[in-house]
């Protein structure tokens, strides 16, 4: 819960609740500006990392669902 | 030699399930428009004698104007004679895991609702997973808030030991916020909490007692099974920012902080650069740094039985290490008719792992490559 509050405060402070009009978003709509530019390329590597590192979550594939030990 | 197929579902039952899921997917997709098909093959090999090949096929499309369905099949085919396998007195092992993932998303004005189901099966493991998600767009879609919750129900077996059967339940919750900062950049913050309860050890991993790296196959070797607590709570917090530098290039950076109830603390930093030399060609360069501390129960070596704690593991994934990964990506698009498109893409790159306290080796080198094709009609 503490992390969620910190996250919300940081997010609000960093963004300042900016509004970008739709006609200003030409660059933002390019494929390379997406949060996941090529999911079909990253899925396998994300899965492999999730089972070879002790940490997981918040980015890429969540761990769980296989006995990939 | 480990023998495949024990007490998990009979082949006929699994085949029936595949047929049912395949039929359901076919029915959903037969009602879909704007079909999209993609396939990819991921290959990973490393100096610990482990090779993974993962083919993946995804079919998706729109059902009506606001609903989308996707069906994905993937398989993990891996062969290993790693140090873990060797110390467990086994020869090289080859196994296959099959996974089916079905998802539906529906748009409602400024909100999106989603649900997905995932089933995976392998000779010694079976898993069912359900995810529900929702997202909301605010401030003319300059802000997006998203929530998701997942539940996984796993059954753990041990090849060659039909009496062994344990369960594992995992609950995950993720909240994220994405904000457009200006006409060329955005920021995303993600927090995820996870709870795992049940059998969290590996049914194959042994802890050798004695100096060096005792091999359990050696005469007189004393080995005990890895034992880990039945609960683990994870927290992960990630920040990502991306900015367009020009009409042809962009950069991105991300950082993740992770901590869990086993005292494992990790930091992940990533930097990406993307360049578009032509209308349909995109190049990407990616560097990723990862570091983690040891989990509380990790022991590099145990010299006598008296040193054993209640929980002990020799899993290198719970040992302290860092890694550096480089990835190069190329994506080439082609027009198909007046509205369709095809993309051919590839990524490849090395990863170096540097272990601080793992007695079998102090470094590991891995190489990963993916080839992918996507057709949008």
Shape of chain B: globular
As a percent range, the share of strand residues of chain A is under 5%
Unreliable runs of chain B = 1-11
Order of helices and strands of chain A: HH
- How do the strands line up in the largest sheet of chain B? 1-2-3-4-5-6-7-8-9-12-13-14-15-16-17-18
Q: How much of the sequence of chain B is in beta strands? A: over 45%
Class by helix and strand content of chain A? mainly alpha
What value does the Rg of chain B take, in angstroms?
23 Å
Query: Which oligomeric state applies?
Result: heterodimer
SSE arrangement of chain B, N to C: HEEEHEEEEEEEEEEEEEEE
Radius of gyration of chain A: 17 Å
Please provide the count of β strands of chain B. 18
- Average pLDDT metric of chain B: 88
Which shape of chain A, going by the Cα principal axes?
Answer: flat
Q: Count of helical segments of chain A?
A: 2
Cα(first) to Cα(last) distance of chain B is 48 Å
Q: Which percent range fits the helix content of chain A? A: 25-40%
Explain what this protein looks like in three dimensions:
Chain A has 69 residues and is mainly alpha-helical. Helix content of chain A is 38%, strand content 0%. Chain A is built from 2 helices and no strands. Chain A is flat, with a radius of gyration of 17 Å. The relative contact order of chain B is 0.11. Mean pLDDT of chain B is 88; it is low at 1-11. Chains A and B meet through helix 1 and helix 2 of A and strand 1, strand 2, strand 5, strand 6 and strand 7 of B.
């Amino acid at each position: 819960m503490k992390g969620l509050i910190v996250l919300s405060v940081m997010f609000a402070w960093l963004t300042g609740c900016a509004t970008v009009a739709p006609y200003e978003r030409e660059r933002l709509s390019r494929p390379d500006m997406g949060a996941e530019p090529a999911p079909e390329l990253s899925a396998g590597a994300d899965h492999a990392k999730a089972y070879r590192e002790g940490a997981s979550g918040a980015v890429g594939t969540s761990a769980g669902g296989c006995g990939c030990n | 030699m480990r023998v495949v197929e024990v007490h998990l579902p009979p082949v006929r039952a699994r085949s029936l399930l595949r047929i049912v899921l395949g039929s359901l997917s076919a029915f959903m997709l037969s009602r879909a428009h704007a079909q999209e098909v993609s396939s990819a093959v991921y290959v990973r090999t490393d100096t610990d004698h482990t090779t993974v090949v993962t083919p993946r096929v995804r079919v998706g499309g729109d059902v009506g104007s606001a609903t989308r369905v996707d069906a994905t099949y993937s398989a993990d085919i891996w062969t290993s004679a790693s140090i873990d396998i060797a110390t467990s007195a086994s020869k090289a092992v080859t196994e296959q895991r099959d996974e089916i993932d079905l998802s539906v998303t529906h748009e409602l004005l400024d909100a999106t609702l989603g649900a997905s189901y995932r089933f995976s099966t392998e000779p010694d493991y079976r898993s069912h997973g359900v995810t529900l998600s929702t997202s909301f767009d605010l401030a003319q879609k300059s802000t997006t808030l998203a929530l998701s919750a997942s539940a996984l129900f796993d059954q753990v077996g041990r090849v060659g030991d039909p009496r062994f059967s344990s369960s594992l339940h995992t609950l995950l919750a993720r909240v994220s916020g994405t904000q457009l900062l200006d006409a060329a950049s955005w920021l995303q913050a993600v927090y995820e909490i996870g709870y795992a309860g049940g059998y969290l050890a590996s049914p194959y991993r042994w802890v050798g007692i004695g100096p060096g790296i005792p091999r359990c196959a050696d005469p007189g070797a004393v080995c005990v099974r890895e034992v880990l607590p039945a609960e683990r709570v994870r927290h992960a917090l990630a920040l990502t920012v991306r900015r367009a530098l020009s009409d042809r290039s962009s950069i991105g950076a991300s950082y993740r902080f992770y901590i869990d109830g086993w005292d494992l603390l990790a930091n992940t930093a990533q930097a990406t650069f993307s360049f578009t030399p032509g209308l349909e060609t995109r190049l990407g360069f990616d560097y990723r740094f990862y570091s983690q501390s040891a989990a509380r129960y990790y022991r590099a070596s145990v010299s006598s039985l008296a040193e054993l704690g209640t929980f002990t593991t020799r899993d290198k994934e719970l040992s302290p290490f860092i890694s550096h990964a480089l990835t190069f990506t190329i994506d080439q698009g082609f027009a198909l008719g007046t509205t369709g498109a095809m993309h051919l893409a590839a990524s490849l790159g090395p990863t170096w792992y540097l272990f601080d306290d793992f007695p079998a080796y102090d470094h590991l080198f891995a190489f990963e490559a993916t080839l992918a094709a996507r057709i949008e009609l």
